[in-house]
Design brief:
globular; about 45% helix; 15 helices; TIM Barrel; two-stranded antiparallel sheet; eight-stranded parallel β-barrel; alpha/beta
Length: about 350
């Protein structure tokens, strides 16, 4: 199981990169860069390629609307070249608020667009001539559109790897099924290893039945906040820090009956609590909604506690098929380095 972190660069970008270099020396395997509508992920990934030596560098995620499929393929081929083959291409749909509101592009057929983008990217990395006409992507433009002068082309350069790992951030049944069929890796949310099958088991099984053996087993990126301590009060404080964001997703993302995060909590067995959280949140009682989150959920979705407890959680994640453990680290850089060193030792032991 590889150790991963999500890059936090809301402040000093270079300081964040320097932190990754220190964590790499402590045993970190992967770093993931988000994008949303902040600084672009690609610039930071290129900077990380120059300031690190062994750590894998992934996007988590870039959307499939604001860049053309061939530009995505070119970009990740370039990143893979300057990093020496250390890049993971994390793709997702984002949402209409960002795609239409910030990028000015119609948010249409997200699952189909991701599937077709993956196909175009892989063909580009294999240096095939791109002549692709799907339901959402037309390359070159068809007759009657544009100048009519476009012709099929292939990538000029020879990529370091003809197959760059593609990770898909998918949430719901059909898209998770497509992920298990087509992607190299899966980026889920609200993942509890002992209960994940209740939400995604059927979809993953259906997709795996159609999966090409050439892809190998599906990799999975999941985890949570990591704090190694025997201090009961500190454990409670760390767990409680996760309440506001979880309440936002479970309670505030979407209307009643149309909130997948709420559906996940219900499927995990906390149906009554999920309804209460949503009712409180939508009625404006955000603090009360956060307080209503079950502590058992917070404990199960994190790795917080004594070394023995952390070891048990690692075994659970590994048995659930998690190949890349996402660690939310807190404290000073010295504390983070020590945590990664301990986690490296524990992961190597299980």
């Amino acid at each position: 199981m590889k150790l991963s972190v999500m890059l936090n660069y809301s402040g000093d970008v270079k300081a964040a990169a320097d932190e990754v270099a220190a964590l790499e020396k402590a045993g970190l395997d992967c770093v993931w860069v988000a994008e949303a509508y902040s600084f672009d992920a690609i610039s930071m990934m290129g900077y990380l390629a120059a300031t690190t030596k062994t750590v894998e560098i992934g996007s988590a995620i870039v959307n499939v609307y604001s860049r053309t499929p061939t530009l995505l393929a070119m970009t990740f081929a370039g990143l893979d070249s300057i990093s020496g083959g250390r890049v993971n291409c994390g793709l997702g749909a984002s949402g209409p608020q960002v795609i239409e509101g910030f990028h000015g592009v119609a948010y249409d057929k997200p699952m189909q667009r991701i599937k077709e983008t993956i196909e175009v990217c892989r063909a580009t990395w294999r240096r095939e001539v791109i002549d692709y006409h799907g339901r959402t992507i037309d390359i070159p433009l068809p007759a009657g559109e544009g100048t009519g002068l476009g012709k099929p082309l292939k990538l000029i350069n020879h990529p370091v790897r003809s197959s760059i790992p593609v990770w898909w951030a998918s949430l719901k049944g059909r898209s998770v099924e497509a992920t298990a069929e087509m992607a190299d890796g899966w980026i889920p949310v609200f993942f509890i290893p002992e209960k994940a099958d209740l939400v995604w088991g059927d979809a993953l099984a259906l997709g795996t039945q159609k999966r090409s053996p050439d892809l190998g087993p599906l990799q999975t990126l999941a985890g949570g906040s990591v704090t190694i301590t025997e201090d009961a009060d500190l454990i409670t404080r760390v767990l409680d820090r996760g309440r506001p964001q979880a309440a936002l997703y479970v309670g505030g993302m979407g209307a009643r009956g149309k909130n997948f995060y709420n559906d996940i909590l219900s499927a995990y067995g906390w149906e009554g609590e999920a309804k209460t959280i949503q009712d409180l949140y939508l009625d404006g009682h955000k603090d009360e909604a956060a307080a209503a989150l079950p502590r058992q959920y917070l404990e199960a979705a994190s790795l917080v506690g004594p070394v023995g407890h952390i070891r048990e959680r690692l075994v659970a994640y590994k048995e659930a098929g998690v190949t890349h453990l996402q660690m939310g680290l807190g404290g000073s850089i010295e504390t983070k380095v020590k945590t990664v060193e301990t986690m490296r030792q524990l992961v190597d032991e299980i």
